[in-house]
Request: fold
Amino acid sequence: MVTCEDKNRESAASEMNTLAKGEPTAAGAETKDDTGETVGTEDMSRRICHIGDGEAGHAVLEYVWSSFARYHSSDMRESDYRLIMDDRQWATVCDLLQGYLAMDDLDNAVRVFRDRRMQELADSCLPDAEPTPAPPGLPQGWWTLLEAAYERLGNENGLRRIYACYIVTDRLPWSRKASDVPDSEVPRHGREIDHDYYVRKLKTLSGEHWPEDVRRIVRVHQRYYRDPMFAGRQLSYEELLRSERLSDAAWRYCKVRSHPRYSLLDDAAELMEDMFDVVAEQHAEEACNILLVPLRDADSSILKNDSPELVAQVIEVLRKCQPYVADRVCAECERLYGMYRHRQRLRGELKKLMGELTSGATGVRVKE
Reply:
């Protein structure tokens, strides 16, 4: 079965042979195809079929219209890549940006991106540092232009790499909340972050290669983005861990980001609450230890007052941990009940929970 990428590779090889012979390849010129027939370069370009949803190409075309007024249309349809560049120009742009962004390999791309970010942070502290050249006003800067080139040239492996790189480096897209309003007219506060956007796109594109891509993303992330001092929380990667139920990888991710050296107790507990269902599959007791720590800190935000919202949060944490560390949950209930004598709402909810635990109404699993 001949794939789109095979056709593109054959077309590129044919064009390289033409260049080697010194024959013209400009738009409108004639050359010979693989069968020996004379065809125009426009006919050859039609043989390259683009892949993906065309979103990056659409963004580039919209950027060209709005920035340079080179083209104009009142009705944005599916991206027409030839309005922006011909296929030889797309191939040239692809080669240049792939080299600049080191996107020939996922490890290299992530390492270069991380090193450049760290250099930018270091330079920002210097009063005479030269500013970094501004990328084009595209959703992901130069990355979007390279993504569009991959789409146009049918480079599936390139698209998979760039989506994986977005996930590892946490390059999240902003999407509009109101679908009936043009994107350019929606202010930033009217947008929301779609955390699993690139996870969905990569999974759709990868097909049978999806397990391989997931393993590669986890490996590269743990190699270059393990340090929370630089990376912090990475929401797109968290979505990948949750959707694929990667308990061990999720625990490694949460463990280092919950260390007191890098995180406040409340922030660590918030992270663990978000990732608890996945982490608990293999590391339930460790996850519960992190969740219960704020309950032993009188200054934590969850114990700030006796409001219904905070009391509900306390009870939710205790109920979440109860199936795994029932004896410790009982001890925490008794301690909190005796410690906060003037918080009637909290004491009332704790009393109910202790009654359930004592009677076994919630199916307590006592820790051995």
Summary: Residues 50-244 form one domain. The CA atoms of residues 218 and 326 lie 33 Å apart. The chain has 16 helices and four strands.
